[in-house]
Write a structure and sequence with these properties.
- It is built from 10 helices and 51 strands.
- By secondary structure, the protein is mainly β.
- It has 6 domains: 192 residues, no CATH class; 106 residues, no CATH class; 98 residues, Immunoglobulin-like (Sandwich); 107 residues, Immunoglobulin-like, CATH 2.60.40; 104 residues; 160 residues.
- Helix 4 packs across helix 5.
Length: 782
């Protein structure tokens, strides 16, 4: 493990800069941070740009290129002149990373983020559709020129590797109010946060300039200014990823048009000696091509071509070895204009042969450009077995083949400052882990025990099948305390809203922290939309925080906002409610009661409104009213069931008439299981999406039948409450069952059955409450 406090900046060549770190135990062993460069294939740069003169299919041009990470020999020589010629070089073991391409069009800065491979030279493939002639000219000017030299566009890598934070303490802070104010100010110019598929790019661009982010660094004795800067860089990378996850989740759960308005402020402190996924951002400007080179990489044609990047990414070696999970992947692409010579082979963990840019002349047989193609792949495993996929039809121009496709799951749990000592400390942590295996394989909840902090003491769950598995997994942490009590921490199931950014391609690292003292902030906000004549006049609300699994039926924290008068379009109730709690978002909930008064003399009673603690914001508006739905899981037959994934959502008002009662079945699926077209439709159609993961237990452990709560919104102008849900039961024999497609009316509760019948037609449950039933419920006080 390298020592972050030993960082040295190394200058080399005319303007090159990189960083080196000394090993924690061996003073003669050093690690160099590799730097980006344009990849070369068969002696030619992996770069191509095309300008379309007539039939561009909606774009004016296309630029495709591949980058990689290298350690330049001149950088090593420069380092050895400083450190001594008798040193040796070690290699980093990457656990994740992101590559960014920074460019500008007409003076407007933009950024594109992709996930690089975690092996070889960490190849990152970029493809940029240039929508206008102005964009094409910007790229031509950036990459061409008689003099060659450096472009104004650059690529930055932020690769993660496990180590300890030494010589410094860091605190990362996100202030939601600053982000919201920034969005309000610039919303008419640019949707700064709204594209959730590329939300990390948006966060990368505006987090600092909005004032919503802050990184504080406290140096230890003898630490250098260079270390302070590297820790600050790491802190910003960490904060950007955390905010991106927060905004992406809020975008799925939010009921308003602005996902940032549904986020809540947070801060997190990393003490010295904490195990972290360290990153040192490194960037380099791309090169310009000479006139002769430009003629080789630039083309001007009439018609748009199909161009698709295929990549093998993620951790594709078996745990602790260099043994690949498979040998090759043969991909066949079906597209009208290229019926032959359409199969190619990718070699697993071979950085030179793990990606392919597939191109074909554009199909205009239907009078307009056809972007749709299909592909199949055949995985060849080392033992001679093969797996052939079903045809996949898509319009994606970047296809990442991830470890779950190979049937690989590798997740490591690492203790991070858990107090494994003292009379009030932790004795051990039992980790219950579950994912759905391929059909026909037993589904069990595995349990392993963590007894010490640090990467060297981590607990790994790994499974290898020759059949694909899903990307989701669930886990529960059961802290066994020194006083023989138990603390349970369980996050919700993973409902990915940003499927292109799945961390490290399923080679996940889960940091296990101190079970006590999680900083929690709950925010009460109000929107007074100017489109309405009636406004919010006064709000009286009492809020309580419950965690039944850890504290029974007693609330843990309480706060009251009395006689609050919201002003302007957006306002925040004071004081902010901060408290300490266990991170148990899959089970804990908020209970809110009170009255909301309107300017027209009417009022609405919040009578025991409850919402999942995953959603730490309550927003009241002059357009909607809030109700809660109780989810009862007490009937689930855990002798046969290993896990239940419950997905709940509402439709946006503008699509209810469009769908009627024929709501697409794919809306019940996690976003990463949808096609690009389906994801686009889901983002335009769904709101207030919540996923509850109900996890069974290993043998001998009792499953608590805890209630969950789903907060829903009813537009004031609409008399009926409506929401949808579905549940997927994973049985212990590896089969699955789903709820029957049906309509339920007259209640605001969901009762999950012991086991759905095997013969029903699976689908979405539409649940409605008509005005009469709703009025009767309100008269009865819920």
């Amino acid at each position: 493990m390298f020592d972050v406090s030993s960082v040295r900046e190394i200058e080399y060549g005319a303007s090159g800069v990189t960083y080196v770190y000394q090993d924690h135990d061996n003073p003669k062993l050093w690690y160099m941070v590799p730097v980006p460069r344009l990849r070369t294939l068969d002696g030619a740069p992996s770069f191509g740009m095309t300008e379309y003169t007539s039939n561009g299919g909606g774009i004016a041009g296309l630029c495709t290129f591949e980058m990689e990470l290298v350690q330049p020999l001149e950088a090593r020589r420069a380092a050895e002149e400083i450190l001594g010629s008798d040193i040796s070089w070690g290699g980093f073991v990457w656990v994740g990373g992101t590559a960014y391409f920074y460019y500008d069009i007409a003076g407007e800065n933009q950024v594109l983020a992709v996930e690089p491979t975690l092996y070889g030279t960490n190849v990152a493939a970029f493809q940029i559709e240039l929508e206008t002639a102005e964009a094409v000219n910007s790229f031509k000017n950036a990459f061409s020129g008689d003099e060659g030299g450096a472009s104004t566009f650059r690529v930055e890598y932020e690769m993660q590797v496990l180590t300890k934070l030494l010589g410094a303490k860091a605190t990362v802070i996100y202030t939601a109010e600053a982000a919201i104010e920034y969005e309000k100010k610039y919303k008419t110019v640019r949707d700064t946060w709204g594209n959730q598929k590329q939300v990390l790019q948006e966060v990368k661009q505006v987090l600092r300039q909005s004032g919503a982010g802050e990184v504080k660094v406290e140096l230890g004795p003898g630490s250098s200014d260079e270390l302070a800067q590297r820790v600050r860089d790491w802190g910003w990378t960490t904060l950007e990823n955390q905010v991106a996850n927060t905004v992406a989740a809020a975008a799925v759960m939010a009921t308003g048009p602005n996902p940032v308005s549904a986020t809540t402020s947070f801060n997190q402190t990393y003490q010295e000696d904490t195990v972290i996924d360290w990153s040192t951002p490194v960037s380099s400007f791309m090169r310009r091509f000479s006139s002769e080179e430009w003629r080789q990489v630039f083309t001007r044609v009439d018609n748009r071509k199909l161009s698709v990047v295929f990549n093998l990414i993620g951790e594709l070696n078996r745990s602790g070895t260099d043994d690949p999970v498979a040998e090759t992947v043969a991909v066949t692409v079906t597209y009208p204009t290229r019926p032959t010579d359409n199969t190619f082979t990718l070699i697993v963990t071979n950085g030179d042969k793990s990606s392919k840019i597939f191109e074909a002349p554009g199909d205009f047989s239907g009078s307009r450009y056809n972007p749709e193609f299909s592909y199949t792949y055949v995985i060849n495993f080392k033992d001679g077995k093969t797996f052939k996929s079903d045809p996949i039809t898509t319009t994606d121009t970047l296809v990442n083949i991830t470890p779950n496709v190979f049937g690989t799951r590798q997740v490591t749990f690492i203790g991070q400052n858990i107090p494994f000592s003292g009379p009030t400390g932790v004795r051990e942590v039992n980790i219950d882990f579950f994912f759905a295996p391929p059909a026909g394989n037993p589904a069990i909840v595995q349990t392993k025990t963590l007894t010490a902090n640090g990467a060297e003491n981590g607990v790994r769950f790994d499974s290898f099948y020759n059949l694909p598995i899903g990307q989701n997994y669930s886990y529960r942490l059961r802290y066994q305390m020194a006083d023989n009590s138990e603390i349970v921490s369980e996050p919700p199931g993973a409902l990915s809203s940003a499927p292109d950014y799945t961390g490290s391609g399923n080679a996940d690292i889960v940091f296990v922290a101190d079970p006590k003292g999680l900083f929690t902030q709950f925010t009460l906000r109000a929107f007074n939309y100017t489109t309405e004549t009636t406004t919010l006049l006064l709000v009286d609300v009492n809020a309580q925080y419950f965690d039944p699994v850890n504290n029974g039926d007693k609330w843990i924290a309480e706060n009251t906002w009395s006689n609050w008068q919201p002003t302007g379009l957006l306002s925040f109730a004071e004081p902010r409610w901060n408290f300490q709690a266990v991170d148990n978002t899959n089970n804990a909930y908020f209970n809110l009661s009170g009255t909301i008064f309107y300017s027209n003399g009417e009022s609405f009673t919040l009578d025991g409104y409850r919402q999942s603690s995953e959603y730490k914001t309550m927003t009241v508006t002059n357009t909607v009213q809030n109700y809660s739905v109780k989810v009862d899981s007490s009937l689930v037959d855990w002798t046969q069931v290993a896990s239940v994934n419950l997905t709940m959502f509402q439709l946006k008002p503008q699509v209810r008439d469009k769908f009627g009662k024929d709501v697409p079945a794919f809306l019940s699926r996690p976003r990463h299981e949808m096609t690009t077209a389906q994801r686009i439709e889901a983002e335009a159609s769904q709101q207030n999406v919540m996923l509850f993961s109900l996890l069974g237990a290993p043998s001998g452990v009792v499953v608590d039948s805890l209630e969950r709560f789903y907060g829903i919104q009813r537009p004031i102008a609409e008399p009926t409450i409506e929401f949808y849900y579905t549940a997927v039961y994973v049985l212990k024999d590896g089969t699955t069952r789903e709820l029957e497609s049906q309509e339920v009316s007259g209640r605001l509760s969901v009762e999950l059955p012991a086991l759905p019948p095997a013969t029903v037609t699976p689908g979405l449950v539409r649940q409605v409450m008509e005005p009469g039933a709703l009025a009767a419920r309100m008269r009865q006080g819920g």
